[in-house]
Design brief:
single chain, about 110 residues, mainly alpha, Non-ribosomal Peptide Synthetase Peptidyl Carrier Protein, Chain A, 4 helices
């Protein structure tokens, strides 16, 4: 979806990973974008995984079922949502874009 006329995507802060194909979300009350909030929650679970740079986290075995359980709990807490069992599918957790889309579906965005 294109931005309204005259609106631009804010520049990426220096030192923040480049997220190809992911637009910066509006900043919330915390001052963090939804993507920044998501990446912070994921880093709390596994700080040794480059979540922003991977496209097949589940399929390539970079995260296992225990990690997935922790990720779901972290997303539930960070975004005040409750992910149901039916949405626990590899395609919803293979990359940060899919996870953010899942979060936004629960938030009604």
């Amino acid at each position: 979806m294109p931005f309204p006329q005259g609106r631009r995507v804010p520049p990426r802060p220096e030192g923040q990973p480049k997220l190809i194909g992911v637009l910066h979300q509006e900043q919330g009350v915390s001052g963090m974008t939804d993507m920044e909030k998501l990446l912070a929650a994921l880093a709390e679970v596994r700080d040794d995984v480059d979540f922003a740079g991977e496209d097949a986290l589940v399929d390539d075995g970079l995260i296992d079922s225990f990690d997935l359980t922790q990720i779901i709990a972290a997303l539930d807490e960070a975004f005040d949502i409750h992910i149901i069992t039916g949405d626990i599918e590899p395609e919803n957790f293979n990359n940060v874009r899919s996870m953010l889309e899942l979060v936004h579906r629960y938030q009604g965005k």
